[in-house]
Amino acid sequence: MDGLMMDFPLTLPTLLRRVETYFGEKEVVTRLPDRSFHRYTYSEMARRAKQLALALRELGLERGDRVATLCWNHYQHLEAYFGIPCGGFVLHTLNLRLHPNDIGYIAAHAGDRALIVDASLAPLVQQFLDQTEIEHVFVVEDSYEELLASADPAGWIAPDLEENEAAAMCYTSGTTGMPKGVVYSHRSTILHTLGVAAATPMGVGVSEQDTILPVVPMFHANAWGYPYVAAMLGANQVFPGPHLDPESLLEDFVQQGVTWTAGVPTIWLGILQLLDAQPGRWDLSRMKGMLVGGSAAPRAMIAGFKERHNLVVCHGWGMTETSPVASFPALPGELSNADDETKFDYMAMQGLPLALVELRARDDSGNEIPRDGETMGELEVRGPWVASAYYETPDSSDRWTDDGWFKTGDIVSFDPKGHIQIKDRSKDVIKSGGEWISSVELENALMAHPAVAEAAVIAIPDDKWQERPLAAVLLKDGASASAEELRDFLAPQFAKWWLPDRIEFVTEIPKTAVGKFRKTALREQFAPRPAVPTP
Ligand code: ADP
User: Fold this and answer.
1) 513 lines ligand 1 (CB under 6 A)
2) 516, 175 in Cβ contact below 8 A?
3) Which of 24, 16, 10, 23 is nearest to 52 (CA)?
4) Rounded distance from Cα 196 to ligand 1 centre (Å)
5) Is the CB of 29 inside a 6 Å radius of any atom of ligand 1?
6) In terms of CB atoms within 10 Å, which of 72, 203, 223, 290 comes out highest?
7) In terms of CATH, what superfamily is 430-526?
8) What is the per-residue pLDDT across 57-95, written as a single tens digit (0 to 9) for each?
9) Which residues are marked as active site?
């Protein structure tokens, strides 16, 4: 017997109708390139999104055509987030921090036909445009405005979209191999939005009363879904534009009354240093939660925010392939009165899967790992917002198991209640004498040392042990510490064979386009030399 419920497609025009019908007066605030603030309402956003959809149709673009953006986080990008998919086209967010050749490769591979670009990034486009099939380029605050003005929103009728049609595309940033295209459907996007909105990391969630500022770029993994989550809930949203330095962000938080924000660890490390240097300068009492993800955040940083500034920072885990949010940290109810140290342990974990997402992990022999908090295995994930294939990449089926789970390449342990802790990426974990050493745990421990600003640990080849850890350390301005001192600091926390053989002091840790440690560059820099113990 079948259920007798409506076959109602899960598509983005429903979300657009909702935000303009119920939250039309709520605000979208953007920090413009000249540092002033632009403000308008969701009503205006919806009107302009429809104009964009109509204008693209009038250009001759067809259902399913890809329309790319090369933009910072701002209100026009939000219009693209709605207007492109609601018009039946596919929003393709291009990562502006990539090399122009890589952007060209990605835009060509995706078959992009049109592009919306920030004025400041227009020169970049000239470096890759001829590699692509892009026919139309619209510059924000310039020809983009003419495009919108060409369409009358009164003529808007939402197209009849199927929920499994593509809504958006994003390429993995290529930390591992060539960038690969992930294609989100309307259905997966709506379910991900609901999943993130319903989640309460560490017991705290978002609602219409919040003001959300996604620091995480809209060109990278949908800004963790927050532009859609905020619109669905009717929360105000604030976009930082290109101003991502700690000082500007703190100013945005205070001046715009931000209550919820999300970004990669390097952003929060910079903010913590500034807050520590000038305590009391910013009143952040309205901030309920600051999410950190994209790579593992040091526990010491999480504790530092809470102890010194009474701010809750906690993890979210996910990947481009998982829309991206798949898990959030959770504090079991019976521990709600636990001491801070216990809470920090949970905040530093990646926690439990969002509803509808399932996780498991298996060791090298394919056996599921026990929930003992120690044994490590590769994490596998499945759910309605997890990719089932890459766009036109036939030889990538080895990323999925025979029974349809996605192999994340992340190494995790499960605690007895099933909370995950990311220990490493499979290509970064250090395999020493047949045992695994977690580079993330060593990094986090090093970054708890008062003199250390950043630390990245890599494997270097070793004749006897196969691989041994090397730590690249960036000291804080004006601080000093010797390799010996750092090893002594680590010694009580780890088995002796975990301790890095070499500690190298560097002036910079190379980062990827989205601010993660670029360990391939460090391996090239340090691996050719034989591993010799630090004197
Ligand atoms: P790329 O694969 O190019 O780095 P993604 O942004 O999709 O691009 O990165 C996903 C990866 O980021 C995950 O596989 C994981 O290794 C890492 N990651 C994401 N969130 C977290 C987190 N909270 N803690 C630790 N690692 C994380």
Assistant:
1) no
2) yes
3) 16
4) 17
5) no
6) 223
7) ANL, C-terminal domain (3.30.300.30)
8) 999 999 999 999 999 999 999 999 999 999 999 999 999
9) 172, 321, 431, 436
Nearest to 258 by CA among 271, 234, 239: 239
Smallest CA-to-CA distance from 512 within 436, 387, 432, 428 is with: 428
* Peptide linkage before 324 cis (omega within 30 of 0): yes
Compute the distance between CA of residue 71 and CA of residue 94 in angstroms, rounded to an integer.
8
Residue 330, SS3?
coil
φ/ψ of residue 347, rounded to 5 = -65, -30
pLDDT in tens, 346-402: 999 999 999 999 999 998 889 999 999 999 999 999 999 999 999 999 888 889 999
User: What is the rounded distance in angstroms from the CA atom of residue 272 to the CA atom of residue 243?
Assistant: 17
Here the tokens at position 493 are 């926390």
Residue 291 Cα to ligand 1 middle (Å): 14
- 293 touches ligand 1 (CB under 6 Å): yes
Q: What is the pLDDT of residues 392-437, one digit of tens each?
A: 998 888 899 999 999 999 999 999 999 999 999 888 989 888 788 9
Show the tokens assigned to 344.
């920090």
- The DSSP 8-state label assigned to residue 370 in this structure reads P
User: How far apart, in whole angstroms, are the C-alpha atoms of residue 76 and residue 509?
Assistant: 33
For residue 292, give the ligand 1 atom closest to its CA.
Answer: 23
Determine the 3-state secondary structure of 500 from DSSP: coil
pTM over 0.85: yes
Residue given tokens 């989640």 in the structure block: 199
Question: How is the chain split into domains, by residue range?
Answer: 12-347, 430-526
- Domains 12-347 and 430-526 in one fold: no
Per-residue model confidence (pLDDT) at position 395: 82
- CATH number of the 12-347 domain: 3.40.50.12780
Of the candidates 214, 213, 209, 112, which has an alpha carbon nearest to the alpha carbon of residue 169? Answer: 112
